[in-house]
Structure formats: structure tokens, C-alpha cells
Amino acid sequence: MRSSALPRSAPADASAHLKHRRADAIVVLGCSLFSGGRPSERLRRRVALGVLLYREGAAPLLVMSGGGAGAIPEATVMRDLAREAGVTDAAVLLESESRNTFENAANTARLLHAVGKHRIVLVSDRAHLPRASRMFRRAGLEVAGAAGVPASSMRRAFGAVLYEAASHLRGLFRRRAEHC
Description:
This protein is of the alpha/beta class. It has one domain (21-151): Rossmann fold. The chain contains 5 helices and 7 strands, in the order βββαβαβαβαβα. The strands form 2 sheets. The protein has a 5-stranded parallel sheet, sandwiched between helices. A hairpin with a 3-residue loop joins strand 2 and strand 3 (38-39). Helix 3 packs across helix 4. The protein is globular, with a radius of gyration of 15 Å.
């Protein structure tokens, strides 16, 4: 019987996206929840990919990263999805304060450094991974691999690329303003 935490759209071979070097943790980035704390299909797909990597032995620990704007943190919902898929609570750390990718990176780095870990596999949407990987490296983590969930349609893929391009430009201007 198929777990509800593992959607049909989860990639069949997640390890193809990695450099085949074992990491300390798999960091799964959150995304918006529906009202009442219900996970979106995007979030389900990210968690499913993280769980698949965990089962394949990419790392012994899953970090669910995301606070979000609602009453229920994204990381809590992500942990519940991982539980439904059979991952034990001992294998999951929660970072539930962040509201954006910059905070995901900073908060996750603090959490992992506190337990002596620094090598990660990063899981998010494919279009988001280049920017997210840069932020996690700047926060002091070694990104040993990245696994991206594909967009569910060409329209969504195009929208994600536009969003990431705009976010990259915002980051460049923000850094420039800090140095002036």
C-alpha cells in the first residue's frame, strides 16, 4: 500500500542527482501550506524526495526547514509527512522559525553546527536549488549534493524560473546596499 506522504509524482531515482558522497543531513526546504496547515502537492513532493534519499542512505538525518507565515510551521507538517512514510522522530530535526530561504540557511546552519554536522544534501524545487545552495554555502554548510523536484507543468516551471531570477536580483541589490 502506498503512503499518502509519497505522491505519485515523486522521482524514481533521486540518487542520480547527487555526487554519491554521504552527507551528515538531508535538508528539505518548506513551501506554503494551505489553510488549516494542509500540505501542498509541492511540499509533499519535496518531503517524498527527502525520505527517498534518507532510505537510500544519503544521510542519517532529515532536517525539515520552514516556519512560514501560518499558525502551523511548515517543518511540523513536513515531519508528520515523514512519519507517515515510516521515518522515526529520532531521524528528524525541525527548523521551524524561518520565513524565507535566507533564514532557512542561517537557522539550519546554526542547528546543524550545534550538533557537529556540516555536510548536507539540499532538497527543494529544481529552479530554487542554485540560489538556495549559494545561501547554504554562505551560511557555512557544505552542500555535498542537491536533489530537485521538477515542476508539475511547463507553466509552473516558467513561473519558478522568473521568480528565482527576480529573487536573485533582489539579493544582489540587497548586498550592494549593505556595502554602501
